[in-house]
Amino acid sequence: MIKTLIYTTTFFIGSSLFATDAQTLIKENGCFACHALASKKSAPAFKGVAMRNKRFNGSNAKASIMNSIKNGSEGKYRHFIGAKMPAFSNLTQADLTTLADYILSQGSKGGSCGHGGGMGMRRGGM
Ligand code: HEC
């Protein structure tokens, strides 16, 4: 009985940790000093990053984003010419994956830039 309780609790804590993982990484690494989720700061919004990478890099979007975080980037976003994305070579491959997934997920939230039938819009089964 107690065992079950502990088990359940761990499960809940575990799953909420998972959900905030990307946000924790973003906080710990100070990404929001330059970036915002959906508005321009001194760096492109993650939402715009997601849309740009999906459009230009297709199925390589994730790998490309991971590479930019790890090695830095400059010159890709016109409005930010002269600004540089610093390299975060301290991040592990798992961190990079988490961040890239999170950033890409921002591109499918709301907004008017639909490319039709994004992920999560499953409509089959008549
Ligand atoms: C010092 C400011 C600064 C910080 C801190 C920063 N960025 Fe950036 N980031 C930029 C700028 C500027 C660009 C635009 C680079 C360009 O034009 O190629 C950018 C671009 C990006 C891109 C798009 C690259 C691409 O290939 O499309 C991603 C993804 C990104 N940042 C993620 C992050 C993450 C994740 C963090 C935290 C770990 C972070 N950034 C921290 C300034 C910053």
Task: Describe it.
α3 (61-71) packs across α4. The longest helix is centred in the N-terminal third of the chain and has 27 residues, at 2-28. The chain has 126 residues and is mostly helical. The model is unreliable at 13-20 and 111-126 (pLDDT under 50). The radius of gyration is 17 Å and the shape is globular. The protein has a two-stranded antiparallel ribbon with strand order 1-2. Helices cover 51% and strands 3% of the residues. The protein has helices at 2-28, 46-57, 61-71, 93-106; strands at 73-74, 84-85. The chain has a domain at 26-106: Cytochrome c-like domain (Cytochrome Bc1 Complex, Chain D, domain 2). It contains four helices and two strands; from the N terminus they run αααββα. It binds heme C. Heme C (HEC) binds at residues 26, 29-31, 33-35, 43-44, 49, 52-53, 64-65, 68-69, 73-77, 80, 83-86, 88, 99, 103.
The fourth-level CATH homologous superfamily of the domain at 26-106 is Cytochrome c-like domain
Low-confidence stretches: 13-20, 111-126
Strand order in the largest sheet:
1-2
Instruction: State the share of residues found in helices, binned by percent.
Output: 40-55%
Mean pLDDT: 81
Name the hetero compounds present: heme C
> Helical element count?
4
Biggest sheet character: 2 strands, antiparallel
Q: List the helices and strands in order.
A: HHHEEH
CATH architecture of the domain at 26-106: Orthogonal Bundle
* Secondary structure tally: strands: 2
